[in-house]
Specification:
This protein is of the alpha/beta class. It has seven helices and six strands; from the N terminus they run αβαβααβαβαββα. The protein has helices at 2-8, 26-35, 49-54, 61-73, 91-104, 121-129, 160-174; strands at 16-19, 39-45, 77-84, 108-113, 131-132, 153-154.
Length: 178
């Protein structure tokens, strides 16, 4: 796709969001720079190994760390996406995500609040281990007002109020999503 995009000379900017870290290599990043891409966003999801494994992402945290270093080493801006409140998450696990976010030093961080969608294994997990509130999608975009998003789910180990608190704490601790 990237080679065809480059050959087509479309004259349109290309954004790369939520790229799998295990697919990133030097050749891809060189091509992205040639095309004019200025940042690459990778989906980290969680910095806690247990939570990361529980979501069956198909990557390893080591691959994400290596990809982040490679992106920054190529002079591209690094954007990351983290999700507060995934299955198996606790407040302590979310603090691991904050530590990883700080260590990666991305140029931008999207701190999302997890929403268990119908007919997914994550939804089933929350129905078995906690509660889901309502069916409407809720935004987890905080914006400049720092208005906290509502938590769409909870578990006894990680109640809704604590999820909201950690979402705000992550944003403030990394100072990259404002």
């Amino acid at each position: 796709f990237l080679r065809r995009y480059q050959a087509g000379r479309f004259g349109l900017p290309l954004r790369i969001d939520n790229l799998r870290a295990d697919r990133i290599d030097e050749d891809m990043l060189d091509l992205l720079k040639t095309i004019g891409v200025d940042h690459v966003c990778i989906g980290v999801e969680s910095g806690n190994p247990g939570v990361f494994d529980a979501v069956h992402k198909g990557e390893f945290l080591e691959e994400i760390i290596a990809a982040a270093r490679l992106i920054k080493g190529k002079g591209l801006r690094l954007y990351t996406c983290f999700i507060i409140g995934l299955p198996e998450a606790t407040a302590a696990a979310e603090r691991d995500s904050i530590r990883l976010a700080r260590a990666l030093k991305p140029d931008w961080i999207y701190w999302n609040m997890f929403q268990p969608q119908k007919a997914t294994s994550a939804r089933t997990w929350f129905e078995d281990h906690g509660r889901v509130f309502g069916e409407e999608d809720k935004t987890s975009f905080m914006g400049l007002s720092l208005a906290a998003a509502e938590a769409p789910c909870e578990t006894p180990e990680f109640p809704a109020e604590e999820r909201v608190r950690l979402h705000l704490a992550a944003t403030l601790a990394t100072d990259r999503a404002l």
